Amino acid sequence: MGQQRTIAERRRARLGPVNPIDSPVTEGRAISPATTVTVGWLLIAAVNACFIVMEPLPPGGVSVRIPHLLFDVGQALAAGLLCGVAVSALQRWAPHGRFVGLSITTAVSVAIGLVVLPDDLMGLTALLVGPGRSRAWVWLVSAACSLVIPAAMLVGRILRRPRIRWIGFGVGAAGATVNNVLLPGDYPAIHLVISLAAATIAASSLVGAVLPERVHKMREAVPQIARRVALGIAVAAALLAVVIQPSHRVRVAMSRIDGATIPPLVARGHALVSCLFPSDSVAEARGQWLKSRKDARDVPPSNLGLVDPDQLIVVMVTIDSMRAELMTDPKYAARLPRLWALAAESTYFSQMESTGAGTVVTYSQIFTGKHVFQLKWTQSRPTPLMPKTQPMIHEDESVRFTELLSAAGIRTVTFANYAPLHPETGMLRGLDEAAFIHPESDDQRFALAKETIDAAVERIEKHDGGRMFLFVHLIDPHRPYDAAGQKGSKFDNYVAEIALCGIAIELVVKALKERGLWERTVFISGSDHGEGFNKHKGLRAHNTHLYEEVIHVPMFFRVPGLEGKVIDTMVSAMDLGPTILDLFGLQTPGEYMGQSLVPALAGEGVNLSRPILASTLKRFRKTALYQPPFKLIVNDRNKTAEVYDLSKDPDERDNLADTMADEMLKDLNALRSVHGLAPATKKASR
Question: In which region does residue 161 sit, left (phi positive, over 0), alpha (psi from -120 to 50) or beta (all else)?
Fold first, then answer.
């Protein structure tokens, strides 16, 4: 003890006056590294708790909020205790040396980074080294980014001085705060690394701090048995927070706090246990859609005489990111007059659900007639049109419906202003004519609607009169929402961009009429997906989620000789391929997962039995299953489930998963199992 006191005296002489927490008291004791690690994680929990209480009270009120807080704090405490045990073990058994701890921290951090970061850093890597080399370099970039954790430890060591150690603690708190506002709704691995770095710098800066004498006296006044009981209670609480599964409502609420990075790890642990001890999580196969359709018979055309298939032209012009409300809420009629006028003379499907949360995932399913989990996704090869690689279906051998049209002698034509929709990238096949429309200005990301439609109009004017399928997708409504100028809010600018698309579509209609083709043309228009605009917290755009503001889309069919009407039956964008084939009098492949809407267009009884699903790209691992009026959303990354009654809760606020998820999950798992993907883990249900 004398030797230790001498060292302390020398240290105080070198550093000068100290703060109370480092005051020289005989009874004082320095805070151990293991304790500071636990304190670091409790700091993360405290910051997260602030963000939790700032959230609007969820449906279920305090019965959701209080468990949310308790589980979040308990799991953070468990992480701190586990790390503290690891630190104590290293102090006891690892070789002693000045840089041993830093070296071990670096090795562990790099290992964590190599496991979790590559998916989140693929885009950054492509920007740094080019798309062609990103697959190889992403491992190096991941390892480099993971070094932020040992760097935080080193900075904490530098700040480990009586007067400035609280700066390190404050930096940790600031890092935890930034983690809750940075990259909302995505990049979970980056959030995890930031949490680790924030906890590390806070813990490292506190190592060696000495408790004030009054704190020490208060501690000594508590009987040792009471202190042990308190420690036991803390450990038990942490263990229970990890072992017990919270309700679906609580889990979903926890997943919406970006800085809460431990709950997803705990959920994956539960999923692993579920895999080791499987239960009946797959429904009994029943009905034609819960059986493999690889050998299913082709579906013959309806032959209802709706149109003359030998003289037919089908023109499909879709608009990117268009929410359904823009075509159902009368307040937008004056802002989108051309689209509303065209819809008024068309059959409007008011309950059209898209197949995906983004253009690539949606059209990959529409053109192949298969769901995401039935398709082969691989990283694309760099091409002149798309040098940046991304997951695509270019190696998938599924028959595109455009290939069937072309084989039947129907001229298939597209004008693409978005590289993945050009046949060169492999999503679309069977196009007899395909042109890519480049933007007129280097300031533009894509060719705008007018530029793209001008090419389509020119092609219509030259058409020889034969059967044709023409497809154009207009991508004007896209961040940063400046294609129509910036005169109002982002949402106002977004609506103005859609209005520009309406003007462009009117040019196509005019060209068809002037060419004498309008009365032979079935004109299809709508959207591939919607846009978030923060209707749900942190979800500003699309791609990452499956709420109705993204999946519920407008879709209408103008058919010669039919008056305008509205059909309220829920349908799927997966039905577009079978519908177009049926209009041309062609069979639909038996393996297609959609059904023709021609009977509905003709006013016949609607008998649609296929499942309706929507998916994100595999990176985001979300799937929605519709069983009207109910909708299930499963997040396989966070292991959460949500169920909403869309007839009563169209805004998807009141999660019914705790009472309804199990049976719907069984049906979803059966579909996945039968059609090629392993069932989801039981963790998505209680």
Answer: beta
pLDDT one-digit tens code per residue, 120-145: 888 778 777 776 677 788 899 999 99
Q: To which residue do tokens 């520009």 refer? A: 500
Distance CA 9, CA 592 (A): 80
Rounded Cα–Cα distance for residues 642 and 547 (Å): 10
pLDDT tens digits for range 210-268: 877 777 777 778 788 988 898 899 999 999 999 999 999 999 999 989 999 999 889 88
Strand ranges for 202-249 from DSSP E: none
Q: Is 447 left (phi over 0), alpha (psi -120 to 50) or beta?
A: beta
Q: Is-contact 113 146, C-beta < 8 A? A: yes
Expressed in percent and rounded to 5, the helix, strand and coil fractions of the chain are 50, 10, 40
Residue 185's region, left for phi above 0, alpha for psi from -120 to 50, else beta, is left
Cα 265 to chain center, whole Å? 17
Smallest Cα–Cα separation from 180: which of 382, 6, 44? 44
- Using CA atoms, how far apart are residues 16 and 405, in angstroms rounded to an integer? 85
Instruction: Round to whole Å and give the CA distance between 87 and 90.
Output: 5
% of the chain at pLDDT higher than 90 = 64
Give the separation between CA 454 and CA 623, rounded to whole angstroms.
Answer: 37
- What's the predicted TM-score (pTM) here? 0.87
- The encoded tokens of residue 311 equal 């003289």
* Distance between CA atoms of residues 623 and 680, nearest Å: 10
E strands within 244-394?
Answer: 313-319, 347-349, 352-353, 378-379, 391-392
β-pair type (630-635, 640-645) = antiparallel
Which three-class secondary structure state does DSSP give residue 515? coil
Tokens describing residue 652? 């998807």
Residue with tokens 């803390």: 234
Identify the helix (H) or strand (E) that includes residue 50.
Answer: helix 33-54
Q: Which domains does the chain have, with CATH numbers?
A: 2-211 (no CATH), 301-572+591-605 (3.40.720.10)
Six token digits for residue 44: 């993360």
Is the pLDDT assigned to residue 328 strictly greater than 90? yes
**Beta strand pairing call for 391-392 and 622-627:** unpaired
Number of H helices, E strands in the chain: 22, 17
Alpha carbons 665 and 636: distance in angstroms, whole number: 12
Strand order from edge to edge, sheet including 313-319: 433-436, 411-416, 468-474, 313-319, 521-527, 555-558, 347-349, 565-567
Residues in contact with 142: Cβ distance below 8 Å, sequence separation at least 6, in sequence order: 113, 114, 117, 118, 121
